[in-house]
Amino acid sequence: MSDPLNFDYKYGFSMPDLAVFKAKKGLSKQIVYQISKIKNEPEWMTEMRLKAYDIFLEKKLPTWGADLSKINFENMVYFSKSTDKVKTSWEDLPAEIKETYDRIGVPQAEKKYLAGVSAQYDSEVIYKSVQKELDKIGVIFCDMDTGLSKYPEIVKEYFASLIPTHDNKFAALNTAFWSGGSFVYVPKGVHVKMPLQAYFRINSERFGQFERTLIIAEEGSQVHYIEGCTAPIYTTDSLHAAVVEIFVKKGARVRYTTVQNWSNNVYNLVTKRARADADSIMEWIDCNIGSQVTMKYPSVYLMGEGAKGEVLSIAYAGKNQHQDAGAKMFHFAPRTSSRIVSKSISRAGGRTSYRGLVQVMPGATDSSVYVSCDALLMDEKSRSDTYPYMKIKENNVMVQHEATVEKIGEEKLFYLTSRGIDRVAAEGILVNGFIEPVTREIPLEYSVELNRLMQLEMSGSVG
Amino acid sequence: MSVDAEFMNFIDVSKEKKEKYQVDKPGKHIFFISNYSGTVNIEIDSVNAEVFIYGVYIGRNNDNFKLNTIQHHKSGSNISDLLVKGVFFDQSKFIYEGLIRIDENAQKSNAYQKNQNLIMSPLVFIDSRPFLEILANDVRCTHGSTTGKLDREQLYYLQTRGLSVDIAQKVLIDGFIKDVFDRMSQHGVKNDLYVKYKTN
């Protein structure tokens, strides 16, 4: 295929490659060892990486879900370092990198209100500006590599304890090659008022990115973490296999928001999991707009009495895209509740699949589950699937699931066009209305951007 | 409009025991499934066909039911409507997988699927997987699944009217199941099947 990407990708530009260090293409134990050495990691991490590499080779690709057969693991660069040390102020950043950020709108995020920016360019966090207040209240927010070197005890205690290396092939791949990602530690009782944000970006051809994020919210604390990403267009496939582990202690509340807009040659295969202790709340807000293939099922393990889990998600699949996303909820304790709301849109031959699992274990009495999936099909070439699994092993529970699939309302379109709005804009309005229950939960600047993106995607639909 | 005048086809899947059923005539096709394990693949390849699938499951002791239904719309302008209700006691198990598949050219199909389960014992295991695969866009498909125990308030109400817990439970379970038979009788299927399923 000469040009598989035939729509006008707004952020489709690629800055000249600046990477200071770049590992050779392909996989080998040597590269794993090299990465660990360059990063000056403790021995246990080196060992964990090497062990993970073996597990990665042993594990098979999943036989369900999206088609992954085209991924060529040999043809990727597994590590690159764009500047040699972490920059602390905006002025120090190289001009090219600044320009890239300008285009995706980081400067807006610089404004006082949006304090905690940790922007990822290639595989390491090179720029972060964390307000003094974070230090004052004892909150740790840094990239994972810094986290490991500065707080090895905390990292060692939690790292890979929720998503073990052998969990799946891509978790193993990430554990072997991880680089970058965020490390967040919120002490007991601290409420972080501002959302912590990280911008992710892949800027190197054939370069796989494996961020590793660890969030620990101690008893009674609150934090909102946001990741948003957008990437330039490449001619070869890129792989993004992140691992995110979140620990929500007793009475704590964590919200994790993702706005994913990889260019649509990226394989986005992510493992995200949270553990919720007694009376805690874990919320995943997951918006998948870009990538060629996404497989992502944020999950919550409701381990403590009264814990709550929630996943709100939007999936959009345009031409050549397959979004295989969903959520997983595991009820282990009494009085736990979970809610999953999924909205998906397929257009121009795209395919969205909701795939979810709800499991209520014996003893999780008085638990309740609510799952709702709505899908919108924009044309006759597109496809929508719903695969919810519900395993109930306890009788004193209430489990509800509902799903609908339909096309965009012809009458609503007619009404809007009769008011002088052209068809494309009308479709945009209806789609934005359809996803509104999720977009209203994300910060304003993101929902504005998301609405604009949806409008942009829809405008490609004519002719 | 008189129901008798229309084409109506009644199939008791538990007796026919076939894996695949072809619906190639317009009119009503009623499928009844009860305490049956296996695949029921219904291929709908006729315009104006109305397919109703009704299922009733009562699980006791070590009963283990595995039901797999497929509502496969191969051509459009038709309806399929599935309702499977189950009541599970003791250590009974129910694994239900239901698929609605709408092919690309099956435009203007309407498909519904509903699975409701009552759990009467903590040892019961229920696995419900209502799947949708939709390849046409001018369609409306919904599915729903609920699993839980008897409504506490309804039980309480009946008890305040002087019914014992046991009787109140029976009344509620019978009502839950009777719904399926009422719907069948609305389509003109005789209602004598219900008697068999009443809990005594």
TrEMBL record, chain A:
<dbReference type="InterPro" id="IPR000825">
    <property type="entry name" value="SUF_FeS_clus_asmbl_SufBD_core"/>
</dbReference>
<feature type="domain" description="SUF system FeS cluster assembly SufBD N-terminal">
    <location>
        <begin position="40"/>
        <end position="197"/>
    </location>
</feature>
<dbReference type="Pfam" id="PF01458">
    <property type="entry name" value="SUFBD_core"/>
</dbReference>
<dbReference type="InterPro" id="IPR037284">
    <property type="entry name" value="SUF_FeS_clus_asmbl_SufBD_sf"/>
</dbReference>
<dbReference type="Pfam" id="PF19295">
    <property type="entry name" value="SufBD_N"/>
</dbReference>
<dbReference type="InterPro" id="IPR055346">
    <property type="entry name" value="Fe-S_cluster_assembly_SufBD"/>
</dbReference>
<comment type="similarity">
    <text>Belongs to the iron-sulfur cluster assembly SufBD family.</text>
</comment>
<feature type="domain" description="SUF system FeS cluster assembly SufBD core">
    <location>
        <begin position="200"/>
        <end position="434"/>
    </location>
</feature>
<dbReference type="InterPro" id="IPR010231">
    <property type="entry name" value="SUF_FeS_clus_asmbl_SufB"/>
</dbReference>
<protein>
    <submittedName>
        <fullName>Fe-S cluster assembly protein SufB</fullName>
    </submittedName>
</protein>
<dbReference type="GO" id="GO:0016226">
    <property type="term" value="P:iron-sulfur cluster assembly"/>
</dbReference>
<dbReference type="InterPro" id="IPR045595">
    <property type="entry name" value="SufBD_N"/>
</dbReference>
